[in-house]
């Protein structure tokens, strides 16, 4: 089993990454971290560095059988990030997607982040959204 954990730099995405870490550990799954961004910047690299720190805290960063890869997908488009995550999950054959909910607009915050909502509605595999 392979788990895909998209991160966007928000606190909720790192809470979801911590959940994904425990989920993968419990079920002996591989964990794959991606950051889909609509900009190319140093911030994107900082997000992946923070994700590495979360995995390091869990004691699994250097376990190649557990954490298979970190990927930066760029450029994405803000209104397409959910579709980009779905495409990665589908093309690479992930078995589960774990992500935080985070909306940039007021309406998005009332329900789910638009990317999380897109993934939950259209994923062909189980998707867990962590608040």
UniProtKB/TrEMBL annotation:
InterPro entries: Rossmann-like_a/b/a_fold, Universal_stress_UspA, UspA. Transmembrane segments: none annotated. Residues 3-55, 81-131 form the UspA domain. Gene3D superfamilies: HUPs. Belongs to the universal stress protein A family. This is Universal stress protein. The lineage of its organism: Archaea, Methanobacteriati, Methanobacteriota, Stenosarchaea group, Halobacteria.
């Amino acid at each position: 089993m392979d788990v895909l954990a998209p991160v966007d730099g928000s606190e909720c995405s790192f809470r979801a990454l911590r959940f994904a870490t425990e989920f993968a550990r419990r079920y002996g799954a591989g964990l794959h971290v991606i950051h889909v961004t609509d900009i190319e910047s140093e911030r994107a690299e900082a997000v992946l560095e923070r994700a590495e720190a979360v995995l390091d805290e869990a004691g699994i960063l250097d376990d190649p059988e557990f954490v298979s890869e970190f990927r930066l997908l760029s450029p994405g488009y803000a209104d397409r990030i959910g579709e980009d995550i779905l495409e990665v999950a589908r093309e690479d054959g992930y078995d589960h997607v774990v992500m935080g909910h985070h909306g940039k607009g007021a309406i998005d915050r009332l329900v789910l982040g638009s990317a999380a909502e897109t993934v939950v509605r259209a994923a062909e595999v189980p998707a867990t959204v962590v608040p």
